[in-house]
Amino acid sequence: MTGRGRTRKAATPTTDSAKGKTISGEYAENGFGEEKQSSTTTEQKAKGRDRKTPNSTNEKSSEQSSQKKRTNNFTEERTDDTKAPSRGAGARTGAGKSKEKSEVQLTKPQPETTKGTTQHSAAATKPKKRPGTAKAEEEETKTTQPEDTTKTSVKTRAAVDSLLSTTLGKLKIKKIDKSNTAKVVNKLIDHIIKHLKEKTNCFTTAEALRTGSYYENVKISKPDEFDVMLSIDVDRVDIKPFGDNGAFYSVALKRGNNPLKKFQEDDLLSASEMLTEFRDEVKKCVKAFPDWEVTRKKPGCPAVTMTTTVQSVLVSLDVVLSIKVRTSWPAFTQQGFQIQGWLGTKVMKEYKGKPYYLVPKYEGRGAVERDGVSAKDAWRVSFSHVEKDILLKHGSMKTCCEREGQRCCRKDCLKLLKHLLGLLKEKEASFVKFYSYQAKTTLLHACSSRGKDSDWSASCLSRCFLQLLEDFIGHLKKCVLPNFFIPDQNLLFGIDKKKCLLLARCIEEQRDNDFPIFTCWLQNEE
For every residue of 208-251, which 3-state class applies, written as one string? Predict the structure, then answer.
């Protein structure tokens, strides 16, 4: 192999043929094709002079003239990375010339493209690969393959990430708005508790338990909804299931001087009577706040709902009557609340050692009786205090979302799902029976099945949100969403299956089209 600028003796065609390699191939492999092409004639003349042959001077001159003529012809046809082969000493006769010409034609590489087609291409500026080599085939394959779909998916994923992040930014409640609204709400709550302790005999142990999305830090858009449970402490009660799903119970007070006995009939604590008196007392309190208005009672609703306007925002406050039960959790919860792989067995035992709450709520018609108990006098079990504590902590690591810890996207995914559900309900009135608690329950199940913080990394927002949507869609298609604490209770019970399937299709359409409903909402917010 020669270095750049050095002359070498040209091998005869016979020698080259025996080696199975031509000089042009060697030059191409060493990357000298472009430099040698421009000086082909001159270099070959120099090689002709250096070569020692036994022939006469006339034959040498004739040979050089013939070689020059052929070289000029070949140069016009040759590509950038080929070199004309030199003639050997044995090519003197016409037969030898004919033989050499035939060998040159066989070894001469064909042009990759026609003249002029590569001059304006980006590839023309790079050294070309010889046809037939592995590198040349690889380069050709790269140019003929379709565009990588992975790049397209990455672009789409980035666009969805940007859209979801922008939506979350718009959903965030301003601190000044939270502060102004909280002052108005807290003032009324404090007044109600004070009134119950001073003006009543049966509600003197009332305590405020602030629950719901606002106090769980998952409220979106505006600080317009507040939920506060006013719990009445009871020491000794007997509870029995009302129905077969484990969510409703009848309550009987045990012996003792309990002020709540005035609401007991046939040894059962009447939820309807207790709620009626509680509602009357709350209405008395609100009279001192003319800016607040008590709304009409809804059948089966355990809350006294009041509304007011704070800085042009209509704010509603639900004050819910409840009783605190200091016994073991009902047997129906044994198969629920599976947080061992998420928050740990120790945390689960600590939660189950806490009291739980019963609220005066029933399903269906209040006059329906079971075992002599009317539905309107039944109580529904509530674990809202545990839900609040879980969502505030929410991480398998104690430092999750703290300054010294890694940030997750659990709450962000819940906010987006609640927002999507709310926008779809605005477009379709038949979705009225779907509500945010179903979205929260879906998240709790998802966190239980994917308990590691790495499963909910903040950098994977779109992936986590899409997975949460798949979970929710799966529940809708089956028309089954178990209560996180009481698996036998189906939170989709009583909703027409067609409505569940319709909502599932609407969510799938939004997902498959990169959430145009979010884009439209953002445009309206600007």
Answer: EEEECCCCCCCCCCCCCEEEEEEEEEECCEEEEECCCCCCEEEE
